[in-house]
Description:
- By secondary structure, the chain is of the alpha+beta class.
- Helices cover 45% and strands 27% of the residues.
- The chain has a domain at 2-33 and 189-321.
- It is built from 5 helices and 9 strands, in the order βββααααβββββαβ.
- The strands form 2 sheets. Strands 4-5-6-8-7 form a 5-stranded mixed beta barrel. A two-stranded antiparallel ribbon has the order 2-3.
- A hairpin with a 2-residue loop joins strand 4 (198-211) and strand 5 (214-231).
- Helix 1 (45-89) packs antiparallel against helix 4.
Amino acid sequence: MRRLIIKCALVGIACLNAPGMAEDAPSPAAGGPEYNLTSYLKGTAPQVRDRLNGEVERLIVRLKESQTALADCDKDIANDTKAAIEKARKSDLYRQTLAEKTRAEQELEIARKSGTPQERLQAGSRFNKARLTIEKMENDAVLHSEALAQDRNHSYDIQRQIKRFKESLDRAVAWRTELLNAIRTTYGMRGPLKDGSKGVLPLVTVAKVVDADHLLVRYDAPELISKGKEAEGIQSYSARFYHTTILVPLDTKNIKTGDKINIDHVYVIDGSTHTEDRGTVFSAKRLENETDVLFDTIVPLRESITSDTSGKLNQKNPPKSE
């Protein structure tokens, strides 16, 4: 056992005796059951979802829109660069210099085959002079293109906007993760475990994939000891933790031994056995209720965070040591 600090939503330990943790099926009432998690995370599951996820989803949309705008701007830069060079190539001076370059190239080829060192040097000098003049014309055309200047200014503004959105998204994701983990802890199964203990299983470690429908997980079950500080809708508690092993019925597809996962479904302990290698192993069964409705609604995001966006979902925020 170890004593640590954990964070819960302000509904706190009372949630274990709330209607949402009863063994009854979800309420069929219009709009669904109401949850009172914090002063601003309350209402029906969709209302809680909108308050919890709304800012993250809004920023993801804005960030993706800006990234699309930047890609379009890159295309404009490429097109306007090509147009500026093509315009320069149509000038009389460019055509004249290009003809000089072609003649110099031919003379250089002849000098390399049969000319004297001095003739090769002079031919090479004429060729390089024409080549550099052409390159300068093209570079100047790009440098002085008003359309390209506007494109680059626009690109700079969008890149700054993307940076701001990413920074804001990082903060929003971190705050959402802290709130979501606090809600998980609030509804988490409390220690010491016994028959009838119930709750979700936040942040467990997969000890063994038993079969397609069962996992053995290691779960540190908290026993709340005393209330600590409250900050921004989150209540801290001093807690004693019990290292437990639980056999959990769950679809094990894409799960492997050693994974750390949040199991956002309510279970009830319905027995235990003693094994030589693992000690006491508790068995759990699913308990369908209103808490499952809450987690099924608030955990998924309508907008996904991809490799092109910032932030990390499902961040692991372990308790702080005292």
